[in-house]
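Reviewer comment 2.1 asked that we show a complete input and output for one of the modelled complexes. We chose the beta-D-fructofuranose case, as it is the one discussed in the main text.
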Amino acid sequence: MKDAFQREKDERERMGRTVESCPFRTNYHIMPPVGWINDPNGLCQFKGEFHAYFQYSPLSVHGGGGYWGHCVSKDLLNWDYREPPLASDIPEDINGVYSGSALVEDGRMYLFYTGNVKLPGDYDYIDAGRISTQLLVESQDGQQMSAKEKLLGMEDYPQDITQHVRDPKVWKEDGVYHMVLGARARAWKEDGSRQDKGGILIYSSPDKRHWTLERELVPQKAFGYMWECPDIFRLEGHRVLSFCPQGLEAQEEKFQNIYQSGYSLLDDNENPEDTFREWDMGFDFYAPQTFETEDGRRILIGWAGVPDTERTHRNLTVENGWQHCLTLPTELSFREGQIFRMPVREIHELGWEKAETKDGGYDWRDCTLKLQVNDLKGEAFQVRLGTEENAMTIRAEGNKTEISFLNPEGEAAACGGGRGKRIGRVSGRIESLLVLVDSSIVEVFVNGGELVFTSRIYLEKPDRKLQIQGGGSSSLAVIKKA
Ligand code: FRU
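Response of the prediction step:
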């Protein structure tokens, strides 16, 4: 791996474009050291430190997999990167060490993941040509892994399930281990044409090694054709299913991205579509995973990206040898019948300094920004990040928030890489906004996390301005970094 990696690096250096010199590197978000990142995996707190693994393609800025990356942190915001601890190196995972999760028990870390195999040949890779195996490794330090053990193979999935079965999330409840897997079930419309259905499989085990199918949850009426990255957890007495349905039809103010990511409450309604809510209304959010901290908080980290977006928008980091990052870790709470999502409290303990705006403006060139706006009472408010010609504008009024890269003529600003606009609404009126900007990523939290927007933004340093207009009381804090 090192040779190919070095060759790629030499080539970029020759062209004067390096990851290190890229102005879009972030300060507090998990990024690929080089190449591509997608889903967060194996999130956990282990022996006092936070571990985040991730789908990682160091050899290609366009993905394709091959590794789990690994980083470690004491505060969930400053991360140290380690060597990739898992690679595609056995027959069961030769085409991908796909997503999975961690379980910490008795001072050991257990990592569950999917081994992906795509047989060479003319296959559809849905009904034929793919092998999805659920695997386990153990570790005492989070870095050195035991031999890979096969837990479940194609022979263990129900008859109606296609070859798409992946992303094990494992938890322990009442002395029993449970594993939820995302799946694509074979199904047909009344006219006989194929219309597959997304769903989940839940297995249970007394010992983490022998697994029995407990439940297959595939809705009567299709809600997307495939569900990826499922996660089941309890939050303040509620049973939550988080998952990523693919194939939902876009509506004007819902399901605006190519694939969705949201949650349903499994309390007393077993049809996930009825209670489904999107986790995030921005352009760049998918495949989140949650974990519980030692102090009992439920934390969620998502991928600040979406698969298969090459045709709609771009990331302007590609030519510098890297692509995508993860979201800030957010803490979940349950209020007013839904989940609220706010950045972890550790964010406020970073070295923030109060900053004064001049006529509502501020030049943030080398800063990480925190803009808190209170007392909005539904009045019109907007903040522009960028210049008049090249900006993202965040507008809030009544119950509606919009983030937009479009100018009055409807043309898309360069800093969005082709992104247009996204809309979301709160149930009452907008009272507050928290906007966090870390170089090339913006996260907007409306009404204390009732609604969240995550988006990448690619402003060169001279264009990094901010302009506030409208109601409420705003306070700006910054962290200066050269
Ligand atoms: C979601 C996903 C997962 C899979 C992984 C492969 O983005 O497609 O279902 O395990 O990415 O990288």
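The helical segments are 2-14, 272-275. We note this here for comparison with the apo prediction described in Section 3.2.
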